[in-house]
Amino acid sequence: MSDRAGGTTGLLLAAGAGTRMGMPKALVRDAGGRPWVTTAVDTLLAGGCDAVVVVLGASAREARPLVPDRPSVRTVVASAWAEGMGGVARGRARRRQGGRRGRRGGRVPRRPAGPAGRGGPACARRAG
């Protein structure tokens, strides 16, 4: 995702409830006590992203203080987090289209696969 100035923006999706983990992943800390969300933001910035947008949802009030407070990091709260990634993306697409569905009926392109076919935090540059 490119910002308006032509830089690269990383998107960190941390809105889920983490039901299999027993808590939202945005609240999880490593063995040393460091929040996963902080590690992920640092990884995106170290990987070449000029900015990072962190999407919170479940437990957003508790997770927001764990997001690094830096000028290059922005936090947004996804009100449709319970609908999953598709719900969050559809809501964002509708807002960008003035409340209408996107040109492809609200369908959102799939994330590129990462290692072992899994999507993950990544930076992407908009073509053209």
Polypeptide structure, described:
The structure is a single chain. The radius of gyration is 15 Å and the shape is globular. The protein has a single domain, classed as Alpha-Beta Complex (Spore Coat Polysaccharide Biosynthesis Protein SpsA, Chain A), CATH 3.90.550. A three-stranded parallel beta sheet has the order 1-2-3, with helices on one face. It is α/β, with parallel strands linked by helices. The two termini are 12 Å apart. The chain has helices spanning 36-46, 60-63, 84-96; strands at 9-14, 51-56, 73-77. Helix 1 (36-46) links the parallel strand 1 (9-14) and strand 2 (51-56). Mean pLDDT is 74; it is low at 99-122 and 124-128.
Structural key phrases:
single chain; 128 residues; alpha/beta; Spore Coat Polysaccharide Biosynthesis Protein SpsA, Chain A; 3-stranded parallel sheet; 3 strands; disordered C terminus
Write the layout of secondary structure elements.
Blueprint (H helix, E strand, L loop, with lengths): L8 E6 L21 H11 L4 E6 L3 H4 L9 E5 L6 H13 L32
Parallel strand pairs: 1-2, 2-3
Question: Brief description of this entry?
Answer:
By secondary structure, the protein is α/β, with parallel strands linked by helices. The protein is 22% helix and 13% strand. It has one domain (9-104): Spore Coat Polysaccharide Biosynthesis Protein SpsA, Chain A, CATH 3.90.550.
